[in-house]
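Comment thread on ticket #2218

A.B. wrote:
> Attaching the input chain for the structure job we discussed in standup.
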Amino acid sequence: MDMHLHQSPFTPRALTLAIATSIIASQPVSRVIAAESSGGQQSEWHCQTLANGQWSCDPATAQSIPAQPAPKAKQQVRKLKKTASHIKPAAARQNATLKQLLDWQPIQNLSAQRRASEPFYSCGAYIEPPRPGKDYTGDTNKAPIVAESNESSYDKDSVATFKGDVTVRQGSRLFESDNATLDKSRNYGQFEGNVRFRESGVLLVGDKGDLQLDSGRATLENTAYVMHEQKARGSANRIVRNEDSTLELSDATYTTCPPGDKGWQLSGQNVTLDMDSGQGLAKNAVVRVQGLPILYTPYLSFPIDDRRKSGFLYPTLSQSSDNGLDFSIPYYLNIAPNYDATLTPRYMSKRGFMLENEFRYLVGNTQGELGLSGLLDKDELKKENPYYNDHRWLINYRQQTDLTSRWTAEVDYAKASDKNYLDDFSTSLNLSANSPLNQRIGTRYLGGDTNHSWQLSLDAHQYQNMNQTADDPYNKLPQIKLAGNWLASNNLNLNYVADYTKFTRDDNWHYVNETLVNPSDNVYQSNYDSGYGIKKANGERFYLETGAGYSFDWNYAFIRPAVKVQHVEYRLTDLNETDVITDLNSSYGNFTSADYTESPKTTVPTFSIDSGLYFDRFTNIGDTEFTHTLEPRMKYLYSPYKEGQEMNPVFDTALMNFNYNSLWRDSRFSGHDRLGDANQLSLGLTTRLIEGDGFERVRFGIGQIIYFEDRQLWISPNAGIDPGDTDQDLDTDPNDETERLWEEMKDSVSPLASELVYDISRSMNIRQDLMWDTSNNKLDSYGLYYQYKPGERRVMNAGYRFLRQADRYIKNEQDQNTGLTTDNNLSQTDLSVAWPVSNNWSAMGRWQYDLTNKRNLEILSGVEYNSCCYQVRVLWRKWVDDDDNIDHPNSKSGVFLQFVLRGLGDLTSGTTKEYLEGIKGYAGDEK
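C.D. wrote:
> Ran it. Output below, let me know if you need it in another format.
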């Protein structure tokens, strides 16, 4: 089960880290060394902390210089004041510059290696300069403190004074200031003038500060800070570190914009940070963009570390023709370490209020989630809404339990009030599938060892169809499956599958048509019935497959013979014998009452031998040396035709489209309801150009199947169509589809299949898939795709796709068949681009066009602005829905805005990401 924890509402860990590390360094220490440099002499003060918490400091000299009397010391201090006043302006200018830049290095000043590691929008980085203790790896709290200054003194009142370029270092921490005093009688210290604090990845610059040595309470004033790795900076007028380790900040700010850039900034009048609980509280919090306030809250609770914290997530805002103004703001509840929930109130001006709640839990070996969503009242939208004045809701329940290391149990249940719910509202609930919705409970056991692996599964699987104009799928209540693979030797492999499934579906499962029930509001209603003929079947299916394969492998060739036997049988119910006979006789021909059975069974053996050769040589093209390969391949496949499979209902089986990979498949059908006949030889040739580092420059493959017998087994498009029901809304002409299938089954060869992948360069490639019908000398299917991608945010795509299909019925404005048919071949172009047009601006767009029906499927255009600290994206989109009336399309359009604050989060809707997924290869990373 795919489960993801929600992102925390706000995580200014950098702010906490900077302040916390500066205060930690202010704890009482067991040893202080004060060094004074004057006239080539170096003297030290050694201070010890006594049992009562007081200090005992004695002067000593490294060069045995006698201690000076107090008066001389005072005279020396006066002299030092002059020296300090002389150097103070330069230090102040240095500190002011540091406070503005905070170790910032523009992108052009970074090394080539560092620039390569920066994200595309980077303007630079915070680089900590070399300093003593920067690479210290020991316990900083236990390291001795070393103090240095131009001059120092210790008077009779037990006050140590340091003046001029004061430096106090403990392990990796570094304090710098113009002046500092330590009072042993009050256990109190003061730092004044250009106070600077550094620790690995942290810089604090302020005017002055003080600390109480016995309690740890400290105050810093007029500070600026930066966290290098997080690229975060800010300021505070005053920071107080209380005795209980909580921090109180006055007029604090936080941003990830570089110095001098006010792209966005979070500010709080009063901020409290509690490291023990990992929580922060801001009062009168404001988010500003370019100085303009866009979000205000009198109370904001947020996490200050990786621990989850209750609070509001970021809101979404959009405007659409269906919902009107659409606004939602999730609230995250951190109930316990193993429980959480997300509650999302949502307002839609055209529909009303909605509430969505997702609860998640982790208990022992069980993880799960329960989601509920729905309108608090009835749907208020009238236009084109068949569910006007209805209660609409969605429920989602998923759970996985590891009973043992090999045995798991799962529940995956989702149910909606109606088929249009997801199209109208979408959802943030963690659905495993959208169409249809899964409703499954099951268990699985993985057994065996390296040589023999097997899996036993038991599922009860029901589906909810979420398509208004499609048949409901069959439910599997239950499905029991055993599958295994046994490597009997290095060359011999045995496999087996046993599958029992009971297929059922509701009485009214078959889509008939749509009728206009409210012309004034253009409301259509979908109509369903219980089906006709063989398609009314419910019942049980048992499928068994066993096979063996032997492999002869050499460096230059392989031969792999294989045999298998497939058996399928049914126990069918809910059939009307007369209707079934009529249905199958008109669909397949020559079907009589003697062929009718409610327990059909089929057994088909299959033999295949797959073989290939491998040749290679070295060749030079231009200045590049390649390994050129030639890989011919041949596969013979034989499965005899077994009659009577017309009575096999089509529970989960379909005829697959033909492509290059079809040359090597054992069946042209998916599923187990048709055990196909084959007597064929597949011939293929692949050639490659491979560079020395393994990069495949070119791959080309071509092949064709030679049929020794006509295929006789098929699925008739006319099966299950009631000839007496003239109101059925059929999309394609089943007679034309039948004629095309019969032609393919009688062809002596398959379409000529080829594939080409050509990497013109490491950033440019072409892919082509071509299926040419050699029997009728016409194109069967074709795909040509070009991509140029020199970077993650630079991409151009061009594609064309063609697929020959049966003709479709023309529909009128009421979405009803007119009885006339027209060309329905799929012929589409797809052009897309995302490209920077300047340092900050990028343009993007996509155009999908239906050449067959001469209509635009989607037009997307937009611009994106990227700076170091935020991103703005504006898109205009015009599109038609997949189930829209082709002959009378109803296109939709909209404008979408996304605004992202880097390092803080997305404050608006993230729906633009979904639209940009159509630009293949585009990396729309907002982080």
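A.B. wrote:
> Thanks. Noting for the ticket: The chain has seven helices and 54 strands.
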